[in-house]
Amino acid sequence: MGGRRPQTRRKRGEGGVFQKANGLWVGRIEGDPDATTGKRTRIEVTSMDFATMMDKLETAKRELRTVGYVSDKQKTLQQWGEEWLTEQSHRLRPKTWGTYASLLRRHVFPKIGDKKIAAIQPADIRRVRDGIRRAGLSGATALQTYRVISHCLEDARRDRLVTENVCTRVDPPEKVNKTKGAFTVDETRAILLAAAEHDNGSRYITQMLSGMRQSELLGLTLDDLDLEAGEAYVRWQLMEMTWQHGCGEPGHDGRYPCGYKKAALCSARSWRAPDDYNVRPLTTRYALAEPKSASGVRPVPLIEPALLAIRHHLATTTAPNPHRLVWRMPDGSPIPHKTDQAAWREIITACGLPPDRTTHWARHSAATRLLEAGVDTKVVGEIVGHGSTAVTKGYQHVSSALAHDAMRRFAELLA
């Protein structure tokens, strides 16, 4: 704005206003004392336009009055989001962290990441939601993205970057509850027969007849098998790990002190995982990690067809086994999840089934067949490793005899 505004003495708490020689208008107010130093924090707003500066000053005073602090007017949502992801890497499982990072970087940052975090409005959250819908993605993806944004903004509120979590003013996207897919009894029989003719088909036979997760099977070791007792012990799951820099913070060009952008090239790199995460390294990409099940080590009964398939596999495979894995690649390395899914698709397409039915269908099918056989839900939950779902909520540990009896009834259903 043109001329200098006449200065009048302001009352205590109203702040100070002045204009610099370059024409910049400055408004200052004092915040609450710092909890550590005891000194009052100074809040400053600026603009070349007097009216704009005064609007900023009034907003800051209003925030100070209502919530006790002033939001960050400089940091963008993407800047905070990346900081937040780095912090979350110390507490989230790698797969969960990867999901958070993917949702934010694919659906949120491209649309509203350049907005100042304090300026995010409910309309921005709806814009992200509607963009996911227009892309033809599922309601589950929209809901999961909403929850991640809300978590991110709630932590920003706690860190006093924003005065509210605007997601609380937006209705969560609706998720269509679909019945989890499961193969019929006839389809299950066909898949078992096709798997018996396939290299490493014993892996899929075991999954169809036990309900174990894909990562649990790929991480199953010889030490976790008790073929005489007819049990497998789920102690580990195969996890593909991601690297993080350990050399410091990146510069403006995105390069770190080590000279590289990619964390995998950093000499001080480390795996991105929670600080208390129990990990057993296998290769530079893969590790055995604690299973998802909250109950710890989980014994899984193996019925006769699965035991026969595993025994045949162990007797005939000649691949080296430096990691003592039950199933591995020809060179002895862990089987990548995508490679496992590709082999599974070969089997189900040979049975005339759609290729979009992933290995998770095998897990659902095992649980469904157990329920059809009249097995109690608490027993089913213990066998397949449900953690915090309603299936096992409130129940005590299921005895080994009950679990084995349940699998016997499962075998009778398929016979």
What does this protein structure show overall?
- It is a single chain.
- With 415 residues, the protein is an alpha+beta fold.
- The protein folds into four domains: 51 residues; 93 residues, DNA polymerase, domain 1 (Orthogonal Bundle), CATH 1.10.150.130; 171 residues, Intergrase catalytic core (hpI Integrase, Chain A), CATH 1.10.443; 43 residues, no CATH class.
- 41% of the residues lie in helices and 11% in strands.
- The strands form four sheets. A three-stranded antiparallel beta sheet has the order 1-2-3. A three-stranded antiparallel beta sheet has the order 4-5-11. A three-stranded antiparallel beta sheet has the order 6-10-9.
- A hairpin with a 5-residue loop joins strand 1 and strand 2.
- About 3% of the residues have low confidence.
Give, in spatial order, the strands making up the sheet with the most strands.
1-2-3
Number of helices: 13
**How many DSSP E strands?**
11
Radius of gyration: 29 Å
Tally of structural domains: 4
**Which oligomeric form is depicted?**
single chain
User: Which term fits the overall shape?
Assistant: elongated
Straight-line N-to-C gap = 87 Å
Strand content: 5-15%
